[in-house]
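Repro:
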Amino acid sequence: MGCVLMTIHEKGYAKLNYSLDVRAKRADGYHDLTMVMGSVSLWDDVEVSLRGDGRIEARCSLPWLPRDGRNLAVRAARVFFDAMNDPLCGADIHIKKRVPVGAGMAGGSTDAAAVLRALNALTGANFPVERLRDLALAVGSDVPYCITGGMMLAEGRGEVLSPLPELPGGWIVICKPPFSVSTAELFGRIDKRRITAHPDTQGLCAALRAGDLCGVARRMYNVFEEALPRSSAEIGSIRGTLLGAGALGAVMTGTGSAVFGVFEDRAAAAAAHDGLSRTYRECFLVRPVDRLELEKS
C-alpha cells in the first residue's frame, strides 16, 4: 500500500479513573483490573504527516520527552506500519503537550491512540475500531481505551471495554503535585499486601445509568491509594483540600500522582481550582466529554 503525503491533526484527550480495582496478578505478569474511566476536556494536540522513507520522527513541546521507541506515539506508528507490511511508510509526529506527564491520566497512551487514528485515515488502511484496539494493546494497556475514549468499564489489562452512560454533568478539578509515582513500584507494593477495600464498581455503574452524579462521586475509589509510599502523602492532602472545598468526591487517578474532585457547581469548582493553583502549577478545571463530542473532534 503506497503512502500519500498528507497531514492530520488529532486531539489526545486525557482520561480519569473514577474507580480502579486490582484483582489478581496473571501468569503473563500483568494484573487483572476493573476500572471505570472517562474522558475530560483536556487534550494534547497531535499532528501526524506521512513520509515515504520508512522513518518515524517525533517532536514534542516538552523537549525532554524521549523521541525514540520509548515514546508511545513512536511505538504506535511502528506497530501500525508493521501491520500494514509497508516498509516505505513513515511518519512525522508533532505533539503539543497539555496533559500532565506521569499523572495517571494516560498522557502518553492518548498520544499513541491519536497517532493510530491519524495513520488509519492517512494511509487509507481503514482498520475497524476492533483492529485498532488490537494494535493499541501491543503499545500499552491504556491505549485501547484511548482509541475512542468516553465513559467505559474496562477489564482485563484494560482492553476489555464496555460502554457506560456518560457522567451526568458536573465539573472536575484536577491537581497534580510536583512529583510522579512509579507504576511498577505501586504494583509491587500491591502484590505484597492484602487489599482491605475494593471499589463498589457495580454501584458506580448503576449510578451512571441512573444519572446520579452524587452516587457516582460517593463511590469513587482507587485501591492504589492504599499502597502509596509515605513520600506521596501530598496526594492525600490534595484530596482533602478538594473535599473541603465542596467536591462531591475526590480520588487519585490511575497510578497517580494526579488527584481530581467532582463538583456539582461550577463556581465551587472554580474556587477550588483557583485556590489550588496558588500552590500547584499543574491544576485544571475541566468538564466531562461525552462520546459524541469525541467523535466530532
